[in-house]
Design a protein that fits this description.
Elements (H helix, E strand, L loop, with lengths): L16 H12 L6 H8 L3 H9 L6 H11 L3 H7 L9 E3 H14 L1 H4 L3 H24 L6 H12 L12 E3 L2
Antiparallel strand pairs: 1-2
Length: 174
């Protein structure tokens, strides 16, 4: 009574790349989460989590978005681990795209040759544009990436791992 069965964990490297992200997240929590606790926290069935941990199965893109949000991880990280995208050709949600673009700009030789006040100005203008766009999305009720992920779900069901054209909510940034 009141005693919870302990999960049987395999060696970390025995999990699929996608399952490793889930296992790592569960182990990082204090106290560490059991798979059924993870399922409850993420709003998925515990049988789904068991399948993801014990096979090479991966969830539909819309579920990946929900898991990424729940775990506080970039959506692109889960898409890459699930092989819906690659590190060389990642899919980003809007927030990830802004972060990626800003990092690329700050690494560019042209940016690095600017004086510090000019660098601050460039970053400030980009941040202001991002916040304006984010507020517009929020005001229109489009904060959720579900529509694009649903479209990817349909492509996955049709046997493809993504669409030919980028969507409004999940974008491909070279």
């Amino acid at each position: 009574k009141g005693i919870h069965a302990m999960a049987r964990w395999r060696p970390f490297e025995d999990y699929s790349p996608f399952a490793r992200i889930l296992v790592q997240y569960m182990w990082e929590q204090r106290p560490p989460l059991l798979p059924n606790q993870f399922a409850h926290r993420m709003g998925v069935r515990k049988q789904q989590v068991s399948t993801w941990l014990n096979t090479d199965a991966i969830p539909a893109p819309s579920v990946l978005v929900r898991l990424a949000r729940g775990m506080g991880r970039p959506v692109s990280e889960l898409f890459i681990a699930a092989e819906y995208a690659t590190a060389d050709d990642p899919l980003f949600d809007v927030e990830d795209a802004w972060t990626h673009i800003l990092a690329r700009i700050q690494e560019a030789p042209e940016f690095l040759t600017l004086a510090e006040p000019q660098q601050i100005l460039v970053v400030g203008v980009l941040h202001a544009a991002h916040m304006r766009e984010r507020n517009e999305r929020s005001a229109s009720g489009a904060e959720n990436a579900g529509d694009a992920a649903d479209a990817l779900d349909q492509h996955a069901e049709d046997g493809a791992n993504g669409g030919d054209e980028p969507s409004e909510r999940i974008v491909n940034v070279p």
